Amino acid sequence: MDITSINSLNSLNSLLPQKTNSPVGSDTSSMFSDLYDQLIGNVNSTNEAFEGDIVKSAAGELDNPHQLEIDSTKANIALQLALNVRNNALEAYNEVIKMSV
């Protein structure tokens, strides 16, 4: 069993914005944009790893057949996380738009 692949889940902490001592009026939209770009990059990289395993499996070069399922699950979880972040951001945006000033 390859435990090192599970340790890559700790990389989710790197997706969180770093705390800074900036003033309250800082540009939070660019912070969200950067966070979302990193999230999409993570989705793309996990999907590429999964597609690479599919090619290796089809060619008979995949040493560990369980790695295909592991990378499939990682890609699925990364996509679900990105979709949930997007949906919650849209809900928050719609709630802000509905507020009366």
Protein model, in words:
By secondary structure, the protein is an all-alpha fold. It has one domain. It has helices spanning 4-7, 28-59, 66-98. The longest helix has 33 residues, at 66-98. 8% of the residues are buried.
Summary, kept brief:
This protein has 101 residues and is mostly helical.
Assign an overall shape. Answer: elongated
Low-confidence stretches: 1-9
Largest sheet: none
Q: Per DSSP, what share of the residues sits in E-state strands of 2 or more residues? A: under 5%
Summed up, the helix count is 3
Question: What is Rg?
Answer: 18 Å
Q: What helical percentage do the residues reach?
A: 55-70%
- Please give the number of β-strands: 0
Report the mean per-residue pLDDT as an integer. 80
Short key terms for the protein model shown above:
101 residues, mainly alpha, disordered N terminus
Show the helix and strand layout:
Blueprint: H1 4-7, H2 28-59, H3 66-98
Helix pairs in contact: 2-3
